[in-house]
């Protein structure tokens, strides 16, 4: 019976595209309206009308948010391999720059923040990472801000979650396996 009346649902959906719609954007969100698929218009909180036939509506959080960055390994300036994961806290100040000019806003923020963490930490020695304190976190925030400001993002904080020395073993696709590492060698 569903397939017999499935065409009726499709017909109603098609006619619905000609009816203007109301969207509510709450205070923690912003939105971008793409009129005719090419003209982005930034929208703040409130009530907004759009016509689904010629307009695409995309909402995205603009309030303070925190994203945990995945772990990465890098080499310090004194040649030590470390594993590091970080947290970035930010808010979106210009929704149009972030949503209308990037394919995946979350991925863009994550990629640029990970690059900033790499750039700052790889210029430090192992000792400087532990004695860096506030200047290290300031350098991390400033580097992330430099990369994210063209996308309308204000970085509030970048914090290190994990920072541990590690031994990196990269497995090759040729079938060669690395020699096993004993517990004493890891220390």
TrEMBL record:
UniProt record similarity statement: Belongs to the band 7/mec-2 family.
Lineage: unclassified sequences, metagenomes, ecological metagenomes
Stored SMART domains: PHB
GO cellular component, as recorded: plasma membrane
Every Band domain range: 20-177
Record's protein name: Band 7 domain-containing protein
């Amino acid at each position: 019976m569903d397939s017999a009346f499935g065409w009726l649902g499709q017909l109603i959906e098609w006619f619905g595209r000609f009816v203007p719609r109301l969207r509510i954007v709450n205070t923690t969100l912003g939105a971008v309206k793409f009129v005719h698929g090419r003209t982005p218009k930034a929208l703040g909180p409130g009530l907004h009308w759009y016509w689904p036939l010629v307009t695409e509506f995309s909402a995205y959080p603009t309030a303070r948010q925190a994203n945990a960055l995945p772990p990465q390994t890098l080499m310090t300036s004194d040649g030590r391999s470390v594993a590091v994961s970080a947290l970035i806290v930010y808010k979106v100040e210009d929704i149009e720059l972030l949503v209308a000019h990037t394919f995946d806003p979350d991925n863009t923020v994550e990629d640029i923040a990970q690059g900033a963490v790499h750039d700052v930490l790889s210029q430090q020695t192992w000792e400087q990472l532990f004695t860096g304190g506030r200047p290290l976190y300031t350098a991390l925030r400033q580097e992330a801000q430099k990369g994210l400001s063209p996308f309308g993002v204000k970085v509030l904080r970048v914090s290190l979650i994990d920072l541990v020395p590690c031994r990196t073993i990269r497995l090759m696709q040729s079938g060669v396996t690395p020699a096993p590492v004993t517990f004493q060698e890891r220390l």
